[in-house]
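Q: I'm writing up a methods section and want to include an example of the input and output format. Could you take the sequence below and give the corresponding predicted structure tokens, formatted cleanly so I can copy it straight into the document?
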Amino acid sequence: MSLKSSTKVDVNTTELVFTADAETFAAAVEKAFQRQKKNITVPGFRKGKASRKLIEKYYGEGVFFEEAINNIINEQVPDAIKEADLVLVDTPKIEVLSADLEAGVEFKAVCVTKPEVTVAEYKGIKAPKKVKDINDDDINAHIEQIKQRNARIISVDDRACEMKDEVVIDFEGFIDGVAFEGGKAEQFPLKLGSGQFIPGFEDQVAGHSIGEEFDINVTFPETYQMEEYAGKDATFKVKIHAINATEYPEFDDELIKDTTEFDTVDEWKADLKTKLEAQAESRAESEFENYVIQKVIDMTDGVIPKCMFDHRIDGLINDFAFNLKQQGMSIDIYLQYTGMDMDSFRDTFRDRAENEVKLRLALEKIADNENINPSEDEINAKLQEIADANNMSVDEIKNRIPMDDLITDMRATAALEVVKENAVVDNTIETDKKDDEE
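A: Here is the clean output for your methods example:
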């Protein structure tokens, strides 16, 4: 295979013209004949017994050209692309310009190439790192969790029901004195304050005792899901059969001994505060890194081929499909449940895909700028790490993972470390409140 010309026809698009000489083409045609001849029938000859010359006379000289040309493309085009010093991000579109046993074959390949990007000022990025102060409210929230887990339900018959009690009631609703469909139930358990019923209902149940029968007057919301009831006044006749209250334990050393590995409340609180502070530091560090990463993405400039985003979306969908399969569901069933078609489903991944592609290109550019190249020892250590994680040998990993891809990943990871190490904490930067609350 010989490269005849290499012409940049657009941003990230190069057109190659290359040739395979007559000898190469003839050898490929003969190879195609040898593979196909056993399946070819020519009148007057048994299947597989006709000579190449007879087959070509009967079916035409070019009968074996297609397979021969495809073999040349598969075997030799990668070398031509390498000779042109191109890094492709998509399968090249190849056109056969001419094919002749005496002159050989001439091809044209339209190649979408890896884009050149710039990353401005990736050192010294300013980002907030606000570590949450752990206070009594945080501790008390965990105290409530322990009390909730160890609470018990008790029957109450010596007082009226209160908000947060669970009551067992009969009820029947009327609009303009007429009972309406769906407005009646018996022995219905209702947690007061849960908001399970329309506004005003649960508040009016509170204060009544077991055995009481009483009326409740409410108004259905204007936005009520059953339009025929929306905005209408209703009266419910209610009877209480039972009241159940939640009894919480005392939060003391005894409870701590029974439910944790600690002996006293003070020991438990001290340990909890240490853990919460570590979590707060970890979350602040993660948010700091995410902010820095987004800044790198935002400052990455260059024309990126759409196919790179599409390929990344393909990868994300494949990962999503694999996870669905683990749960016994297919993409088709998922789309039916969500009411999406494949195009709209793909769009849900687009922003993430674009960010991931931009970040990867940026990190590879930074690795070039910083002359980052992992040493042999670092590569071997990484291979051993992967092998240990997968219960495989290093040789098995080498056979499964393209080394060029592994080295590229390591360079990108090291580049990100350079960015993070040079980032500067600046807590005067305001972040989105919604992000802070998540």
